[in-house]
Amino acid sequence: MLKSRKTAAIALALGLLAPVFGLAQQQRTPAQNPPAATAGKLAPARVQLNLGRPALPQEIAAWDIDVRPDGLGLPPGKGSVKQGEDIYLERCAACHGEFGEGAGRWPVLAGGAGSLKSDNPEKTLGSFWPYLSTSWDYIYRAMPFGNGQSLTPDETYAVVAYLLNLNDIVKEDFELSKENFASVKLPNVGGFYDDDRETAEKVFWKKNPCMKNCKPEPAKVTGRARAIDVTPDSKTGPRVE
Ligand code: HEC
User: How remote is the CA of residue 74 from the centroid of ligand 1, in Å?
Assistant: First the structure.
């Protein structure tokens, strides 16, 4: 009696589980089932849980879109200032302004040359960024805001060419391509240098640094990154401990 009940229970369990396993197997496409050779190579001789699978080359390619300053990582393609203007007006200008001046409080993309030392620095291709790859990579990856990765490589080349023109770096008849990408030099490339704190701030690096009452006189605000006036006035503002 006992034995047969047990058998029934096992049969029931198998009966319940079999369709589930069957379904799981059926739902996997051939592409998701790695060939036995690959699976054998990756998995050591132990129980295989069959969780996950090696990433497909297409999946890796979809993630691997970063572009280096020397242009490594760029997809093939090209686009002109003129083509870029049309794309920009349609898909970017609503936020960034027709001339890159920034609509409302959306980021400014053009101008600002010489503004980095002012109270209101504008960080654009023309004023701040050292390499064009920063803009290309960022736009291709993340813009238009809310619809990132909707631009094709050609559209991205075109819109970046247009931004270069808005920043007076290239003429109206310019065409940007994978081939000439690295030849575009941005004005502030010399404004960046390797981290030199080990020498420039050597005076701070002491074996026993001061941790208490290090500055004899009270601390003062000597500069503001941006004149948005949110730093409390030292006389009228609330006391800052
Ligand atoms: C809906 C509004 C919107 C649209 C449309 C839009 N952007 Fe942006 N853009 C933003 C916002 C917001 C940021 C800042 C995002 C952040 O800092 O996380 C930004 C940042 C950028 C930056 C970096 C600015 C910097 O120097 O930090 C670039 C370049 C840029 N956008 C280009 C474009 C281009 C080219 C298009 C059209 C293909 C576009 N954007 C469309 C809102 C928009």
Answer: 20
The residues lining ligand 1, judged by C-beta closer than 6 Å to any ligand atom, are 91-92, 94-96, 106-107, 109, 123, 135, 138-139, 143-146, 151, 159
Look at ligand 1, atom 37, and give the residue with the nearest C-alpha.
Answer: 92
Tens digit of pLDDT per residue, the chain (241 long)?
Answer: 444 444 444 444 444 443 444 344 444 444 454 454 454 566 567 788 889 999 999 999 999 999 999 999 999 999 999 999 999 999 999 999 999 999 998 999 999 999 998 878 899 999 999 999 999 999 999 999 999 999 999 999 999 999 999 999 999 999 999 999 999 999 999 999 999 988 988 887 888 888 888 888 888 888 776 665 566 666 666 665 6
For residues 40 and 20, give the distance between their C-alpha atoms in angstroms, rounded to a whole number: 25
Expressed in angstroms and rounded, the spacing between residue 180 Cα and the centre of ligand 1 is 24
Ligand 1 centroid to Cα of residue 96, in Å, is: 7
Domain 78-191, CATH number (from 3.40.50.300, 3.30.56.10, 2.120.10.30, 1.10.760.10): 1.10.760.10
> What pTM was estimated for this model as a whole?
0.72
Give the start-to-end residue ranges of the domains of the chain.
Answer: 78-191
